[in-house]
Design brief:
alpha+beta; Alpha-Beta Plaits; 3 helices; 5 strands
Length: 112
């Protein structure tokens, strides 16, 4: 479990990320399964904070096989989220599985 201090520092760092200008696109929803060293390294918190900053909706949860993210929003924002996660050294992402889903129209992004 991440300490409140580390969570605060992560939140502050993510708030400082200079995001690109995303062009308006039709929303999509995908289930993204991340397999590798993605548990007990604050992966869910990183995804939660960045997804919220990007304006994505959906959720993240631990599963036996890895961590599953259901994200809904512009495809370019979802791709940015995935690309960002690949750059963080404390995560070792061995496999990413992406499956298209139907839109749900949720209002927030949260942890399950």
């Amino acid at each position: 479990m991440i300490s409140l201090i580390n969570y605060y520092l992560m939140k502050k760092r993510i708030a400082k990320i200079k995001l690109p200008n995303f062009k308006k696109e039709a929303n999509i929803r995908v289930a993204i399964t991340f397999i590798g060293k993605v548990k007990r390294v604050a992966f869910r918190n990183e995804v939660l904070l960045l997804a919220q900053r990007l304006g994505l909706v959906g959720f993240i949860e631990n599963k036996k096989v890895g961590v599953v993210v259901e994200a809904e929003g512009y495809p370019s924002k979802i791709n940015y989220l995935i690309a960002h996660l690949k750059t963080i050294p404390r995560f070792i992402i061995a496999t990413i599985i992406i499956k298209k889903l139907n839109l749900k129209g949720e209002k927030t992004f949260h942890k399950k």
